[in-house]
Specification:
The chain has helices at residues 18-31, 46-74, 81-95, 105-118, 142-150, 164-184, 208-214, 223-256, 272-278, 289-310, and strands at 6-10, 36-40, 99-102, 124-128, 153-159, 192-199, 261-262, 267-268, 314-315, 323-324. By secondary structure, it is α/β, with parallel strands linked by helices. A hairpin with a 7-residue loop joins strand 9 (314-315) and strand 10 (323-324). The chain binds adenosine-5'-triphosphate and magnesium ion (MG). Residues 15-20, 42, 131, 267, 269-270, 273-274, 277 line the site of adenosine-5'-triphosphate (ATP). Pfam families: AAA_31.
């Protein structure tokens, strides 16, 4: 990419997976060879600490695996391919690792041009913001308004439940105000806003009648048959939950899509996420089956984000409220 860095900000005023998503997004981008700068504007430097810790963890694993390779070589023993693959994967991830700097929202606002110039060779600048970015009247603080205006893409994460509709209304109001401000000053509002809907499948009840009706395996005479039947039931439940998630994404799109079109891929809650973050790990470091599922699901989110950035935007201008640029 020879273009200036694309600026992404994740904004929501509740603790709702922003920092975790930025960690995984930046690592996924690194593995695709993109250079990413993260700007940590949270007073508690969560993402900064995490990224630094992740670097140390990766460096240690590289040293350990290199020593293993050396030892096997010296003993004249065969070197396992998966060990070499892991080493290569880690070295690539380390070389392209996301870089993180900490600035307050106020400093970021004041230094934005300098930062963009200093990191001009980066592909993405991702901004992690603290939870409290709204004032007592639910209006965004001045710096967050400016950050939204600077950004190419603002991602607003929501837990896919009705409570978050209140937040969605607030965010839609903010976008509407920003558009109005930009247009009344004779400018343009070019920032794209996409919602990232997060779902916990464990909390979504599968429709048992539907699942039973779709079961094709009916034999329960042997243990093997019963196991196969249970596996089919489990898979059908997962499909049913997925269709409920898709319906919720469509419903959100119908209600808020004008200002916050939802990203097509949802963020799925999986038990692997929380502890990975605390240990300086990411879902991209682990090799377990559950990590692979989380990676596959999150890769779709990354793809949807990259597509949203690339999409031609509808711009509000002074002359014409809505034209396509
Ligand atoms: N996909 C996921 N599956 C399961 N748990 C998750 C997932 N993403 C984040 N979490 C957990 O949810 C909690 C909140 O996440 P996180 O700190 O990333 O949110 P945040 O929006 O940055 O919060 P804040 O607004 O306080 O900065 C953490 O415990 C995190 O580990
Ligand atoms: Mg956070």
């Amino acid at each position: 990419m020879n273009q200036p860095a694309k600026i992404l900000a994740l904004i929501s005023h509740k603790s709702i997976t922003k920092t975790t998503t930025i960690s995984n997004l930046s690592h996924s981008l690194a593995l695709q060879g993109y250079r990413t700068l993260i700007i940590d504007t949270d007073g508690v430097p969560a993402i900064q600490m995490h990224i630094e810790q992740n670097k140390e963890v990766t460096e240690k694993r590289i040293i350990k695996n290199k020593a293993k390779v050396e030892l096997l070589k010296n003993k004249g023993r065969a070197i396992n391919q998966s060990l070499l693959d892991q080493l290569e994967y880690d070295e690539f991830a380390l070389e392209n690792r996301p870089i993180v700097i900490a600035r307050s929202l106020y400093e970021l606002d004041a230094q934005f041009d300098v930062i963009k110039r200093d990191y001009a060779h980066f592909d993405f600048i991702i901004v992690d913001v603290p939870a409290k970015v709204l004032d007592s009247k639910n209006n965004p603080i001045k710096e967050i308004k400016r950050l939204i205006s600077f950004s190419d893409l603002v991602i607003t994460p929501y837990k896919g439940d009705t409570q978050n509709a209140v937040t969605a209304v607030t965010v839609s109001g903010i976008i509407e105000d920003l558009k109005y401000d930009a247009v009344s000053l004779g400018g343009k509002f070019t920032t794209k806003v996409r919602s990232l809907l997060a779902f916990d499948p464990a909390r979504i009840k599968a429709n048992s009648k539907e699942v039973s009706a779709n079961l094709t395996l009916t034999d329960t005479s042997t243990t093997a048959a019963r196991l196969a039947r249970n596996a089919e039931r489990k898979a059908l439940k997962e499909i049913d939950r997925k269709s409920q998630i898709d319906a919720d994404i469509r419903a959100f799109g119908d209600a808020f899509g004008e200002h916050q079109k939802p990203l097509e891929a949802p963020l799925i809650f999986r038990s692997i996420y929380p502890n990975q973050f605390n240990k300086g790990q990411t879902i991209y470091n682990a090799t377990t089956e559950s990590a692979k599922i989380a990676q596959a699901e999150f890769n779709l989110v990354v793809k949807a984000i990259l597509e949203a950035i690339a999409e031609t935007s509808v711009v509000a201008t002074a002359q014409n409220e809505s034209i396509t640029n």
